[in-house]
């Protein structure tokens, strides 16, 4: 690790102000940041520890939703009975991620901001436009089994690794931020993550000096919630493909549906057209295929990850069949 | 050992005691430098134009005893335990949170000590494998690991045991796991599948998993 100065933030405004300085970085759980610092992928010169700020509460909101403080640990969020009973897809997604030790440490805001697990991003001897803009993308012609098939650019084909964010995308969560002037902002999660385009190093719409304080969940939509994760081993592995599905159906007829996907793109992937094709449609193979076609529109493989297209289709079929089975 | 002797951080005699480890590691100058407590290097004369390294005071309560440490900001909790306090029971396997050999309990909750900075835990209580037995009386999980042969080489064992203690507490608190069928119920019953999923953050290269599961079941009062 490169040397850094360490300070503990006394307030969110102070933490936000500190991040404006070049080389400064917020640390919360630290499970991803310290990993990257040991490899010198991240080399902050100043760490601002926000762990002692009072941002670790889960509260009811007036509209019947929940407000999750940015420092709520992944394990606590997954175990909260309100989350388990009303937002099962979120609880299951959290429990699908990492290990129990990591979930005890990792925070809500940190989970949203974790970096890609692209091998070439992690290897500082390899070109990577995300780590070192302009150096190229070694994944394009390299080992790209885990990489994106949707929303890619010629500069980056990395995926976002979070399970939690996929469930939050299906739930239409909102990210609350504060800046150094103390001004708050609410960013819908649909607008929070960016596609790589020409600037894969810019991953979110957060501005310098802006930090996450909470994530709010609107009241749960009707229907059955499922999170299905397909990976190389049964536990403690990142998703090759994951599906967060919230589907309301009765007697084989679908009333409403929300689908978000992980492992496919630089951000949790959601396609309105796929959901439209399910609404008021019979729960059968033709309908599921139509939805899968919409999800995979514009999909492109890079050799090693071509399998993700049929895998996405089959996983979606399986999830929809499970939910709508009567 | 007297409490005051054991808690002086880099100046503590234990950090400079000749142990099997230091004998092995002092074979070359480069290795010698890496084994010296980093804060000692930071506090000493600085060569060249390098600015002095940031040094921080950290108070930790480890296995019930207070310790005052002076540390380079980069010191992970694992390195503080192993290199500054000679508590080498917690192991460094991957150093990236993937193997679980470094698992310790902070305020009773299991974490990977390699992926956290010691300074982040200033004022907190840490329990390591060294803090589980009471004198010659092993912790029930330690006894169960011996009885069920829950290890072969033993390198992962202290992490497995600390992790299992945290896991059993989580289970008692009603925390669910990925394989818990009904998340809406307050508590999930422990089963083999639950234990395996909940312990997936601890890798055993010798693959003693069936015996580790048996040891945990015995400790949890389940039929083995």
Keywords:
heterodimer; A: 326 residues; alpha+beta; 5-stranded antiparallel β-sheet; 3-stranded parallel β-sheet; B: 224 residues; Ubiquitin-like (UB roll); DNA polymerase, domain 1; 5-stranded mixed β-sheet; 10 helices; globular; disordered N terminus
Task: Report what the structure shows.
The complex is a heterodimer of chains A (326) and B (224). In chain A, strands 4-5-8-6-7 form a 5-stranded antiparallel beta sheet. Chain A has a 3-stranded parallel beta sheet with strand order 1-3-2, with no helix packed on it. Chain A is built from 13 helices and 11 strands. The longest helix of chain A is centred in the C-terminal third of the chain and has 17 residues, at 308-324. Chain A is an alpha+beta fold. The A-B interface holds A 1, 3-6, 27, 30-31, 34-35, 38, 47, 49, 51, 75, 78-79, 81, 84-85, 88, 91-92, 95-96, 98-102, 104-105, 234-236 and B 51, 53-54, 56, 72-74, 76, 95-97, 100, 103, 109-112, 115-117, 119-120, 163, 166-167, 170, 173-178, 180, 183-184, 186, 196-202.
Number of strands of chain A: 11
Class by SSE composition of chain A? alpha+beta
- Order of adjacent strands in the largest pleated sheet of chain B: 2-1-5-3-4
Work out the strand percent of chain A. Answer: 15-25%
| CATH-level-2 architecture of the largest domain in chain B | Orthogonal Bundle
Low-confidence stretches of chain A: none
In round numbers, the mean pLDDT of chain B is: 85
Oligomer: heterodimer
Low-confidence stretches of chain B: 1-18, 22-46
Structural class of chain B: alpha+beta
How much helical structure, as a percent, in the residues of chain A? 25-40%
Q: How many β-strands of chain B, per DSSP? A: 5
Give the overall average pLDDT of chain A. Answer: 97
Q: How far apart are the termini of chain A?
A: 56 Å
């Amino acid at each position: 690790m490169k040397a850094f100065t360490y300070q503990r933030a006394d307030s969110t405004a102070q933490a936000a102000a500190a991040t404006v300085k070049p080389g400064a970085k917020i640390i919360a759980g630290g499970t991803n940041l310290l990993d990257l610092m040991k490899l010198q992928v991240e080399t902050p010169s100043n760490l601002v520890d926000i762990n002692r700020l009072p941002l670790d509460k889960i509260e009811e909101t007036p509209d019947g939703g929940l407000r999750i403080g940015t420092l709520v640990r992944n394990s606590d969020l997954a175990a909260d009975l309100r989350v388990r009973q009303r937002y099962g897809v979120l609880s299951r997604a959290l429990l699908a991620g990492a290990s129990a030790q990591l979930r005890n440490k990792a925070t809500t805001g940190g989970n949203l901001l974790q970096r890609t697990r692209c091998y070439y991003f992690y290897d500082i001897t390899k070109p990577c436009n995300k780590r070192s803009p302009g150096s190229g993308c070694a994944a394009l012609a390299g080992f790209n089994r885990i990489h994106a098939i949707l929303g890619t650019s010629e500069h980056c084909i990395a995926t976002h690794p979070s399970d939690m964010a996929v469930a939050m995308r299906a739930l239409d969560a909102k990210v609350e931020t504060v800046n150094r002037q103390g001004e708050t902002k609410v960013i819908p999660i649909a607008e929070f993550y960016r596609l790589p385009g020409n600037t894969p190093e810019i991953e979110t719409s957060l501005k310098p000096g802006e930090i996450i304080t909470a994530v709010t969940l609107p009241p749960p939509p009707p229907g059955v919630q499922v999170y299905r994760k397909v990976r190389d081993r049964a536990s403690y592995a990142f998703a090759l493909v994951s599906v967060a599905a919230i589907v309301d159906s009765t007697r084989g007829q679908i009333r409403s549906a929300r689908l978000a996907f992980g492992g496919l793109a630089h951000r949790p992937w959601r396609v309105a057209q796929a959901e439209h094709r399910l609404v008021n449609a019979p729960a059968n193979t033709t309908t599921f295929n139509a939805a899968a076609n919409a999800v995979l529109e514009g999909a492109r493989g890079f050799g090693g990850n071509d399998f993700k297209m049929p895998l996405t289709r089959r996983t979606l079929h399986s999830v929809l069949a499970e939910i709508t089975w009567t | 050992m007297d409490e005051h002797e054991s808690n002086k951080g880099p100046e503590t005699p234990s950090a400079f005691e000749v142990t099997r480890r230091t004998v092995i590691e002092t074979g070359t100058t480069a290795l010698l430098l890496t084994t010296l407590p980093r804060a000692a290097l930071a506090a000493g004369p600085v060569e060249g134009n390098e600015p002095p390294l940031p040094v921080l005071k950290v108070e930790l309560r480890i296995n019930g005893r207070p310790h005052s440490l002076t540390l380079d900001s980069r010191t992970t909790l694992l390195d503080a335990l192993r290199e500054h306090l000679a508590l080498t029971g917690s192991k460094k396997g991957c150093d990236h949170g993937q193997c679980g050999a470094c698992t310790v309990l902070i305020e009773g909750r299991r974490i990977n000590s390699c992926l956290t900075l010691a300074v982040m835990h200033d004022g907190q209580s840490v329990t390591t494998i060294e803090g589980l037995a009471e004198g010659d009386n092993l912790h029930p999980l330690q006894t169960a690991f011996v009885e069920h042969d829950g290890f072969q080489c033993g390198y992962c064992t202290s992490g497995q045991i600390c992790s299992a203690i945290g896991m059993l507490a989580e289970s008692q608190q009603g925390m669910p796991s990925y394989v818990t069928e009904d998340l809406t119920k307050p508590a999930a019953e422990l089963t083999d599948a639950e234990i395996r999923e909940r312990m997936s953050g601890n890798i055993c290269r010798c693959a003693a998993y069936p015996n580790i599961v048996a040891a945990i079941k015995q400790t949890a009062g389940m039929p083995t």
